[in-house]
Amino acid sequence: YKVQCFIRLLLAFSCASLSAGATEAGGNGRYRVVIERQATPESLHEFLQDWEEQLNVQSLPETANGGYAYHRFEQDRIFLQKSLYAEAYYQGSVAGHYDEATQTAAFQITAGPQYRFGAVQIIVEPDEAFVNAPEASILSAKPGEAARAAPVMMDEEIIVNWLEDNNCLLDHRTAHEAAVNHLEQRVDITYRVTAGGKAVFGGIDFSGNETIADLHLQRRIGIKPGECFKRTKLNEARIRMLRSGLVARTEVILPGAPNADGSVPVTFEITERAHRSIRAGASYSTDIGPGVSAGW
Predict the structure, then answer these.
(1) Quick one: which of 118, 117, 115 has its CA closest to 91?
(2) pLDDT band at 56 (very low <50, low <70, confident <90, very high)
(3) Residue 108 DSSP SS3
(4) 141 C-beta neighbours (distance < 10 Å), count
(5) Separation between Cα atoms, residue 108 and residue 92, nearest integer Å
(6) Which of 38, 73, 186, 234: disulfide with 181, CB 3.0–4.6 Å?
């Protein structure tokens, strides 16, 4: 059977679990984690050691009681379970025992088989002809390889960057869906791309610039109406204006959708940097003769 899940949640939950209940160094430090490795494949031992070290870095507050420590034990067990999933051990289980006398959490890991990637595909929604979508061959998740969460996270970034580099889109989003087949020990991955309309830069306006001419800013940003719309170009334009030393802050205002002709008007809201004034003068002293002064 298939179970729908989202791999991003595995990594997010793992990070949140590590931070939950953690304190700065200086707690009582008595809480200790031990992970038994005997019933796990050797390929997982390095991960288990890293997880054990991460959990042991965290200390308990000086005022922690037995209930707090047991809560920490339960959170650590859940973290280890989610971490197994993230490493593609979807049948893995974590048993544990907390010894209150020694404040030691001992965990026994049963990994089970490591699942593999099955079908990996990219679907554009809506299926518009104007979207130049990447081929699945550029992705990190490969059929037959271990179905870890990390390659899926990398693939989302790969797809986003590819779409930006090879399209003229006002907006695009990428998410993934994982179908876990326990009978075949397989995970099928579908990346779903939601794309806005094809777009070009329309009119470019500036607001808030009281002493800087629009023409000067236009030359700085390096964007012209009619060019392929890319959000990376907008980011580069903001950086150029900030580096000029004339602008303290700038925000980009965009419409929710392109105009009927595909053009996207852009407004840069400017906060000018406080301008310095230059002063100069001349003087004459009977002691040292003529002189000049300057400041700003």
Answers:
(1) 115
(2) confident
(3) strand
(4) 25
(5) 11
(6) 186
